[in-house]
Design goal:
Elements lengths: L1 E3 L4 E3 L4 H12 L9 H13 L10 E3 L2 E3 L8 H14 L10
Antiparallel strand pairs: 1-2, 3-4
């Protein structure tokens, strides 16, 4: 339930309609990643179904198209350190993974 007064908005329960009506519009000014569920679904369907994307792996996309990740992801030493740290935190041995 959503109640609005002159300067406050009180949400006592979240439903998909209250999120769509109240939360998402509040988030949109903070970045272009605040898309409606319908827009997000449409973009995901396009990435899944269109032949232009069938061989796309390890790539990032936003509404405008393909994005390059941060520069750190392309540094092999940092990737290895991240992998080794992840294994240690998960308490796994290298031979227990598929990579």
């Amino acid at each position: 339930m959503v109640r609005r007064s002159a300067h406050t908005l009180t949400i006592t329960s979240l439903t998909s309609s209250s999120i769509r009506s109240y939360i998402l519009p509040l988030a949109r000014p903070f970045g272009s990643n605040s898309l409606s569920p319908a827009t997000s679904a449409s973009i995901l369907a396009k990435l899944e179904c269109e032949d232009a994307y069938k061989d796309a792996t390890g790539k990032y996309y936003n509404v405008q198209g393909e994005l390059r990740s941060s520069e750190d992801i392309y540094i092999v030493e940092k990737a290895k350190d991240l992998w080794d740290t992840s294994l240690a935190l998960a308490e796994l041995k290298p031979e227990e993974t598929r990579l």
